[in-house]
Amino acid sequence: MSDTSHLLDPTLAQQLLGAAREVAAHAYAPYSRFRVGAALLFDDGHITTGCNVENVSFGLTSCAERNALFRAVSERGAAHRIVAIAVTNLNDAASPPCGACRQVMSEFVTPSAVIVFPGDAGIEIRSFAELLPFSFHLETK
Ligand SMILES: [Zn+2]
């Protein structure tokens, strides 16, 4: 792991990855067998987790990151903001969040939010802004 301690405390990063790994065991992935878990750390210290849930109609599959976010909003409302997102899988594969999840999470992250995930060369810790530099925002005139 490169020195990314300025972005996120390494101990906290490992804690979040552990929570994500734990919930990945609940994934419903009979088609891809790619079991993913996500852990979202909110600005009040609360952590919400989620796993991927597939469907035989593949387009209806929902990612771990979005399931975690929707769970968090369902349980606690939308007042809190995400400061860190951890995503991992039980397949020992690189798994940065997909584009759809990045867009959905963009409405709930703090400006300094970070993402932790397994990359091709080990654990990556990146700023959310780096992963989604031009998110869609609704602006009307
Ligand atoms: Zn996704």
UniProtKB/TrEMBL annotation:
It comes from the Bacteria. The keyword Metal-binding applies. CDD domains: cytidine_deaminase (cd01283). GO terms for molecular function: cytidine deaminase activity; identical protein binding; zinc ion binding. Belongs to the cytidine and deoxycytidylate deaminase family. The active site is at E65 (proton donor). This is Cytidine deaminase. It catalyses: cytidine + H2O + H(+) = uridine + NH4(+); 2'-deoxycytidine + H2O + H(+) = 2'-deoxyuridine + NH4(+).
